[in-house]
Amino acid sequence: MADLAGHVRTAILDARERDAAPMAAFFYDLDALASHARTVKAALPEGVELYYAIKANSDTPLLNTLAPIVDGFELSSGGELDRAEACRVDKPWLLSGPGKLDSELEHAVAMQVSAVHVESLSEIDRLAAIAHTKGRVQPVFIRINPALDDAFSTRLNMAGRASPFGIDEAQLPEAVARVDARPSLALQGFHVHAMSHQKSAERHLALMAFYLTRWPEWQALSRTPSSVTHLNVGGGIGVDYTGSDLFDWPGFCRALADQLDALEHRPVVRFEIGRFLSAFCGYYVMEVLDAKQSHGEHFLICRGGTHQFRLPAAQNHDHPVWHLPRQMATTGPWHDWTVVGQLCTPKDVLSRRQALKNPRPGDLLVLPLAGAYGYNISHADFLCHPRPALHYLPAHAPQRVTEASP
Predict the structure, then answer these.
(1) Are 242 and 298 in the same domain?
(2) Is residue 261 included in any domain, yes or no?
């Protein structure tokens, strides 16, 4: 367990001692989250902003931890607007995403969000009418779906092809003219988010270069180009769940600084990063209920499952697993084990081919990198199992006490 920080291990064992029921729980190391976020932000070039995309994990203790560090929050629903309002540190918010309800736009305008990312021509019209009714000039970004070649493709493409996200670049002149014609709207910039879960810094730099090449043409479409100041380049920075190939963020930021320095009129670049900020702080802990063999394969049946930690199934990978035995003197042979949960489906698999030494019922398995797109995207009510406990470390901070999930 060399990779598990001592204070996290202690918190896990203390939590198990307090509850006789088999454990299925999440632990979030908020100090580690804050340290990582400060490192990410410090590497950014001057004049580049860091927003947190709260869809990755919108738990209030995480937002309270990140709020003093990041420049703002990116939100994608009315529910996320409510989460941001509950945050104890006031920061700028922006609202993005397709299919916004009128009620969500009204809420955003009333909250005076720093920007709304409009995703269609009709959304421009609806937002303009709402802002006019509320007597507000609402800053907007137009989300662009540009034409991209295959070099920019990933497993999760958000642009460059037919997509519900954004406005095709061919329609951009009409979209800009429509915003400019509305007194209740003010075009502040553009938003392009083409790729998610990108693990290659080199490929992501090429994408940034493409955006920055197009920037002067996009900006010039406005009747007042000087007022169009921002380029939101989304997030999409990936995490290597099955290896040690960490995205070279410092090198990426240095090269991005060179790209920006080469521009005559550089935009204010804004990142909205989720996974790469919060993934590393989280751990999902499962107690082994049974160990068995079937047709030559070894299985560990554990408390919980993919209905609580959906990430491995959603990403289609075998998640790393650390073994925390109840009795530290573990003897017996090593085997490759398939780690599963309690669900009545063969898809309830969190990891295959994990080499573990003699795991037994009562032992704990720790799945790291569980701080983003884990519990918050899971179908927690499936089979009516109790929801996992959520523990926030350190527990002495007022907003970071251990909480039971709703």
Answers:
(1) no
(2) yes
Both 192 and 250 in a single domain?
Answer: yes
Residue that is last in its domain, among 215, 243, 273: 273
Q: Are residues 247 and 317 in the same domain?
A: no
CA torsion 356-275-306-86 (nearest 10°) is 130
Domain boundary among the residues 258, 273, 288 is at 273
- Per-residue pLDDT tens over the stretch 201-249: 999 999 999 999 999 999 999 999 999 999 999 999 999 999 888 999 9
Paired sense of beta strands 389-393 and 403-404, if any: antiparallel
CATH of the domain at 116: 3.20.20.10
Residue with tokens 């100041």: 229
269 & 304 share domain? no
Give the residue numbers marked as catalytic: 344
Q: How far apart are CA 194 and CA 158, in angstroms?
A: 5
The stretch 242-267 carries a mean pLDDT of: 94
In this structure, is the dihedral angle defined by the CA atoms of residues 376, 378, 381 and 384, taken in order, positive or negative? negative
Once rounded to an integer, what is the mean pLDDT over residues 51-70? Answer: 96
Please give the residue that has the higher pLDDT: either 17 or 332: 17
Give the pTM: 0.92
Q: Evaluate whether residue 130 is within a structural domain.
A: yes
Q: How far is CA 148 from CA 153, 159, 215, 235, 288, in A?
A: 8, 8, 15, 17, 47
Structural domain boundaries, residue 226: 92-273
Closest residue by Cα to residue 250 from 39, 83, 66, 406: 39
Q: Which of 201, 280, 208 is nearest to 248 (CA)?
A: 201
Q: Are strands 49-53 and 268-273 parallel, antiparallel or unpaired?
A: parallel
Give the C-alpha separation, 200 to 343, whole Å: 35
pLDDT (0 to 100) of residue 149: 66
> Which of 198-212, 239-253, 369-383, 384-398 comes out lowest in average pLDDT?
384-398
| Per-residue pLDDT reduced to its tens digit, 120-140 | 999 999 999 999 999 999 999
> Strands 230-232 and 185-191: what pairing?
parallel
Distances (CA, A) of 226 to 66, 218, 222, 267, 271: 32, 12, 9, 10, 21
What's the pLDDT score for residue 37? 98
Number of domains into which the chain is organized: 2
